[in-house]
Design brief:
heterodimer; A: 223 residues; mainly alpha; MetI-like fold; B: mainly alpha
């Protein structure tokens, strides 16, 4: 048993690699700070466009959303990070990752927010319009506050998915938590940093999982 | 633009990518089957031991679902492939990906089945038991068939997500579609193989995503 601890939870190795891991954690947090707000904002844009567009426009948007969803997120990420330079565009690595993952996650945020808007009865629209509010004011003051509240658990659920998604950044050499753990493992030839990184992800995300349960979140979001 | 659709590079990449489709589908189907089966078994155990002295087992199952919901699949895969050998467990890339994807889907599937089972009215249990059915029979013949109906749309979506996550296996050198395309890309320094792979994924998954969307509206689950 002590051999097990020496191998997988080696205190010396963990202490020595903690600096690397913390730097990686900071990169992971920065990626989250791009992807979550970026995804929410572009998702809100998508949802509003689908709500306000004429039927044919909403239909083509929904096909576009589904094409993006048909990509595995990792494929989208590799395509954008390795493909953009061929177009002469070389964003800094963190931004490239941020763009790719934001595109992916915004389609989910968008669908959730649209479902929230659709969950409000049409009579609410009519009542708001009859008091003299315009379309924009109706959305802002009447529909969105109620609609967003209705889908709060799903929004939290997708935020969990978005944070988990940032671990993909390690594949395109962004020095995030997972990447740094691999580096530290290589340096020490010991898997403790990897285990520590996994525990850090759990420490970061377990509270979010519990929160989603408290909110009564659906177990499962769309693919 | 030509560099993105260079016909020579595309021709060179196609045989590898084509063989990758088989690996992608094989990994997807086996992990989905294993994950759904695992989820169903765990949810069944949890349903049948309710109230019994074995209650902590139910707590363990719920904890498993929570942990694997919080863990990014790629982190799990990397731990299985790069850390497990230190414990003498040497998994091939394919096996590591199969276990990681199966465990992650198993956790979601358990939650989905459990949600379906608990949504069936208690009266259904009581009525079934009062006709003389045993607990197991009541579960299998009365509760489960009603629960499964509710689970189809979310389970379909999770299965599609698992299929897409097979692309993660490229990280542990499984020769699936993305891995094959990336290796030709490295040789030719051209983005064309990646676009080919992207096209293959869209062809494979766009119909499934549309079906998933249709099921959600069809079954009116929100």
């Amino acid at each position: 048993m002590s051999e097990f601890f020496q191998t997988f939870l080696n205190p010396g190795v963990m202490a020595e690699s903690s600096g690397l891991l913390l730097r990686g954690l900071w990169v992971t947090i920065q990626a989250c700070l791009i992807v979550v707000p970026g995804g929410l904002l572009s998702g809100a844009g998508l949802a509003l466009a689908q709500t306000l567009a004429p039927a044919w426009g909403a239909r083509s948007l929904s096909w576009g959303v589904d094409v993006v969803r048909a990509f595995p997120p990792l494929v989208l990420l590799v395509l954008i990070v390795h493909g953009l330079p061929f177009l002469g565009i070389e964003p800094p690595p963190l931004l490239g990752v941020g763009i790719a993952l934001t595109i992916n996650t915004s389609t989910y945020y968008g669908e959730i927010l649209r479902a929230g808007i659709l969950s409000i009865e049409p009579t609410q629209w009519e009542a708001a319009r009859s008091t003299g509010l315009g379309t924009a004011a109706t959305l802002r003051h009447v529909i969105l506050p109620q609609g967003v509240r209705n889908v709060l658990p799903d929004l939290a659920g997708n935020t969990l998915e978005a944070v988990k998604l940032t671990s993909l950044a390690s594949v395109v050499a962004l020095p995030d938590l997972l990447r740094m753990a691999r580096v530290a493992q290589g340096v020490h030839f010991n898997p403790s940093p990897l285990i520590l990184a996994a525990l850090l992800y759990l420490a970061l995300l377990w509270p979010l999982v519990r929160l989603i349960r408290r909110l009564g979140g659906r177990a499962v979001l769309p693919a | 633009m030509r560099i993105f659709f260079d016909p020579e590079v595309l021709a060179a990449a196609w045989p590898g990518v084509r063989s990758g489709i088989g690996v992608t589908l094989g990994l997807a189907l086996t992990s989905i089957a294993a994950g759904v089966a695992l989820g169903l078994v765990l949810a069944t155990i949890r349903a049948l031991i309710r109230g019994a002295p074995l209650r902590p087992v139910g707590g363990l199952i719920a904890a498993y679902a929570d942990v694997f919901r919080a863990m990014p699949p790629l982190v799990l895969l990397v731990v299985l492939y790069f850390a497990a050998p230190f414990a003498g467990i040497e998994l091939s890339g394919f096996m590591a990906a199969f276990v990681a994807l199966g465990l992650v889907l198993g956790a979601s599937a358990e939650e989905i089945f459990w949600a379906g089972i608990t949504s069936v009215n208690r009266g259904q249990w009581e009525a079934a038991l009062s006709t003389g059915l045993s607990r197991g029979e009541a579960f299998r013949r009365v509760v489960l068939p009603q629960a499964v109906r509710l689970t189809i749309p979310p389970l379909t979506n999770r299965a599609i997500a698992t299929g897409k996550n097979t692309a993660l296996a490229s990280v542990v050198a499984v020769p699936e579609v993305l891995n094959q395309a990336a290796s030709v890309q490295a040789q030719t320094a051209s983005p064309a193989p990646l676009l080919l792979a992207a096209g293959v994924y869209v062809a494979l998954f766009l119909p499934l995503v549309r079906i998933g969307r249709w099921l959600e509206t069809r079954f009116h689950i929100r």
